[in-house]
Amino acid sequence: MADKLSAFLPDSDSISKIQDVSRGLSAATDSPYRLIQESDISALIRPRLDFSHKGTYGHALIIAGERATMGAALLASSGCLYAGAGLTTACIPESGLMALNVSLPEVMYLSREKFFEQEALNRYNAVAIGPGVGITEEAVALLSRILELKRPVIADADALNLLASNSLLMQGLVKGSILTPHMKEFDRLFGIHETWYSRLQTARERAAELGIVIVLKNQYTFIIDADGTVYINSTGSPAMAQGGMGDVLTGIIAAYIAQGYAAKEAAILGCFFHGAAGSELAKTRSNVRALEVAEYVPKVPRWYVSD
Ligand SMILES: NC(=O)C1=CN([C@@H]2O[C@H](COP(=O)(O)OP(=O)(O)OC[C@H]3O[C@@H](n4cnc5c(N)ncnc54)[C@H](OP(=O)(O)O)[C@@H]3O)[C@@H](O)[C@H]2O)[C@@H](O)CC1
Ligand SMILES: Nc1ncnc2c1ncn2[C@@H]1O[C@H](COP(=O)(O)OP(=O)(O)O)[C@@H](O)[C@H]1O
C-alpha cells in the first residue's frame, strides 16, 4: 500500500490522509509527492574525479554573521567546507575574522567593504546568504547587491526575514534560487497557515510562480520544485533539533551548487546527507551538535557513490 502524505506531516487532515506518496524521484505517477530513496541518491551523486583539483568543485560564497551570531556564519561555512566545495569564502564582519581563521582555516574571507566593490562577486559560482546576518541596513544592502546581480542565490534565516518584509527584494529573486525556511520563516514569507497540507500547497504555488526551489524544513523536509513536485526527505533525527543545524544545511546546499549540481539536485543531496549524518551520529547519543553534523557529512556520500 502506498504511503500517505499525512505520515510525513506533524498534523494530519482529511485531505493529506488520502494523498499518495510515491517512492522514488522518477516514479511513474500522477501524485506530486515523492519519497526520496537511497537509489535516487546513488543515481544523483557523482564521484570526485581523477586529476580533478579545487577548481573542479567550484567556489562558494557564504554571506552571513553579525557580531552576536557569528557562529551561524561559521556553521554555514563549515557545512560548505565539509560538503566538498573546492573553495569556500565567508563574507562576515571583520570582528569574526580571528574566529574564522582559527576554527576553519581552509575558508577564505571577503570583507564587507570588498563585497561592495565592482566585480568582487564574479568569481563565485554559488552564493548563500542569511545565517545570522541580521536584519540591519547592512544586511538589506548585502541582499540587495546580490539580487542586483540577477544570479540565483540560496536564502536562509535572516535573508528570508528580509524577503518577507520587503516585497521589492522578493521581486528581485532570480529563477533557480533556493529558499530554505523552517515553518515559521515560511509563514512569515507567504502567510500564516492553519495546516501543513495548506502550507505545502502554498509552497507548490509559490515555487512555480517564482521558478524557485523551496526547502521547507521539518522532521521530514519537503523540497518543492518549480514544477510543483514535492520531494520528501526522510533522513534526520530529533537529535538534530538544536540551534545552528539549519545554518549547516545552507552551507551544504551551497557546496553542491558550487560543485555544479542543479538547484533541485543540490537541495535533495544536501538535505539527504545532512539528515543521514545526523541520524548516524544519533545512533550513539541523544543529541548532536550542528558542527558535528557538518564534520560527519563527508563520510555520507561515500555510502552511495560507486567508484
Ligand atoms: N550560533 C549562532 O550564531 C546561531 C545563530 N542563529 C541565527 O540567528 C538568527 C535568528 O535565529 P532564531 O533561532 O532566533 O530565529 P528563528 O529561526 O526565526 O526562530 C524563532 C522562533 O521560531 C520558532 N521556530 C523555529 N524553528 C521552528 C520550527 N522548525 N518549527 C516551529 N517553530 C520554529 C521558535 O519559537 P517557538 O516555537 O519556540 O516559540 C523560535 O524560537 C538567524 O539568522 C539564525 O541563522 C541560529 O541559527 C542559532 C545559532
Ligand atoms: N526532529 C527533527 N528531525 C529531523 N531533522 C530535524 C529535526 N529537528 C530539526 N531538524 C533539522 O535541523 C534543521 C533546523 O533548521 P533551522 O530551524 O533553520 O535551524 P537554525 O536556524 O537553528 O539553524 C533542519 O534542516 C531540520 O530539518
Provide tags for this entry.
UDP-N-acetylmuramoyl-L-alanine:D-glutamate ligase; twelve-stranded mixed β-sheet; 12 helices; binds ligand NPW; alpha/beta; 307 residues; binds adenosine-5'-diphosphate; 14% strand
CATH architecture type: 3-Layer(aba) Sandwich
Mean pLDDT: 96
Question: Helical element count?
Answer: 12
Under CATH at level 1, the class stands as: Alpha Beta
Unreliable stretches (pLDDT < 50, length at least 5) are: none
Instruction: Tell me the Rg in angstroms.
Output: 18 Å
How many domain regions? 1
Write the CATH fold name.
UDP-N-acetylmuramoyl-L-alanine:D-glutamate ligase
Ligands in the model, by name, code or SMILES, are:
ligand NPW, adenosine-5'-diphosphate
The major pleated sheet works out as: 12 strands, mixed
Structural class: alpha/beta
Percent range for β-strand residues? 5-15%
What's the CATH H-level homologous superfamily?
Answer: Ribokinase
Number of strands: 12
Shape: globular
- In helices, the fraction of residues equals 25-40%
Strand order of the largest sheet: 1-2-3-12-11-10-9-8-7-4-5-6
**Element-by-element helix/strand order:** EEEHEHEHEHEHEHHEHHEEEHHH
Q: What distance lies between the first and last C-alpha atoms, to the nearest angstrom?
A: 35 Å
Organism: Pedobacter psychroterrae
GO molecular function, one term: ATP binding
Keywords: ATP-binding, Lyase, NAD, NADP, Nucleotide-binding
Family: Belongs to the NnrD/CARKD family.
